[in-house]
Design a protein that fits this description.
Strand order of the largest sheet: 1-2
Radius of gyration: 17 Å
Distance between the termini: 28 Å
Shape: globular
Mean pLDDT: 79
Helix content: 10-25%
Order of helices and strands: HHHEE
Structural class: mainly alpha
Number of strands: 2
Length: 135
């Protein structure tokens, strides 16, 4: 889990408060997508930005959802799309086929000073996009 530092305590409290209702594998995406009033109030219009590629190695094999060992997690630089990850945390290829983050357009609800930076849309002699299929 990668979070803004100021959100860590709130997320930890949310997971602890709701652990009897849902497993953490579902609670975190629920909070990220602001599916509850509690998350909506705290996030105050902020929303998750889904990065296109997996950059972290999944080290666990035991899920909180089932007793069986789980294999087949996305490898490095595989695309993080639904249903591999929950819809609220996924990159959306149909909406942003030439970009690296979702949302690829700044929502009207975001403050004007929140800009989006897109690695793939940058151009110049020293910038070369190289995706997993280019290797």
């Amino acid at each position: 889990i990668v979070l803004n530092g100021r959100d860590v305590t709130e997320v930890a409290n949310y997971l602890e408060q709701h652990q009897s209702r849902r497993p953490p594998d579902h609670l975190l995406p629920e909070w990220i997508a602001a599916e509850t009033k509690q998350a909506q109030v705290y996030l105050n219009g902020r929303r998750n930005v889904g990065y296109r590629f997996n950059v972290l190695e999944h080290i666990g094999s035991t899920s909180t959802l089932r007793a069986a060992k789980q294999e087949g997690w996305p490898g490095c630089y595989e695309e993080l799309v639904y249903p591999t990850v929950f819809e609220g945390e996924a990159w959306k290829p149909k909406e942003c086929p030439h970009d690296d983050i979702w949302p690829c357009k700044r929502p009207d609800s975001w403050p004007k000073h929140w800009t989006l930076y897109h690695a793939q849309s940058k151009t110049g002699p020293d910038v070369k996009w190289m995706g997993p299929r280019d290797k």
